[in-house]
Design brief:
The protein is mainly alpha-helical. The protein is built from 7 helices and 3 strands. A hairpin with a 4-residue loop joins strand 2 and strand 3. This is Zn-dependent protease. InterPro entries: Zn_peptidase_2 (IPR007395).
Length: 225
């Protein structure tokens, strides 16, 4: 019983706490202007140009914290607040997304591996619970096993995402400092924004691993009865 309570807490509370931390940190540093008074879009363009990535374009996208890099179209997409904003938060997030563009240009191994997993992970995530629930309802452990195998691919995707995101943040910090976009106490502010964002990926990975362990244990226990 205690183990199940811990599992539910991990499943529900960890992602909630991570999201809360991101929103709180973003809100705080969205009010702090960067010393150079340049927008997130300008930050992204400067870093891209410094790395010879003139072919990578920058677009404004709808939504809150919907920022991302599209490797297929070679586009850095920034949410409106970060595209037009002069804040420390906009600076950090824009640089992070450009970090992915630099990874792409350098064929960063973990990024390439994650790209190959995208179609498999998406299908696996959907199919895993279908097989697991069907197996439980029908008392067919072979279906549960198939679901666990599918789930393992989804978990692998979450785990591979971690080094990709941490590396992008490290590249962001390096580029911001070397280009003179941030200075002195701004480094601490930028790290706080990047670290808060990284918590969401850590939380997702923890939940995914916890789910895999739970259903794999269920299969093993059923087979040993």
């Amino acid at each position: 019983m205690l183990g199940y309570i811990v599992y539910l807490a991990l499943l529900i509370l960890v992602p909630m706490l991570a999201q809360s931390k991101v929103k709180k940190t973003y809100k705080k540093y969205a009010q702090v202007m960067n010393s150079n008074m340049i927008t997130g879009a300008q930050v992204a363009r400067k870093i891209l140009d410094n790395n010879g990535l003139y072919h990578v374009s920058i677009e404004e996208t709808k939504g809150k914290l919907s920022d991302h890099y599209d490797p297929r179209k070679k586009i850095v997409r920034l949410s409106s607040d970060n595209y037009h904003g002069y804040s420390a938060a906009a600076t950090a997030i824009a640089a992070h997304e450009v970090g992915h563009a630099i990874q792409d240009a350098e064929s960063y191994a973990f990024l390439r591996f994650r790209h190959t997993l995208v179609p498999v992970a998406g299908l696996a995530d959907k199919m895993s619970f279908i097989f697991i629930i069907a197996g439980i309802l029908l008392s067919a452990m072979n279906l549960v096993l198939i679901g666990v195998v599918f789930m393992s691919f989804a978990v692998l995707f979450q785990l591979v995402t971690l080094p990709v995101e941490f590396n992008a943040s490290n590249r962001a910090m390096s580029q911001l400092v070397s280009s003179g976009i941030i200075r002195n106490n701004e480094e601490r502010q930028t790290k706080k924004v990047l670290n808060a964002a990284a918590l969401t990926y850590v939380a997702a990975a923890l939940v995914a691993v916890a789910e895999l362990i739970r259903f794999a244990s269920m299969f093993l226990l059923a087979n040993n009865e």
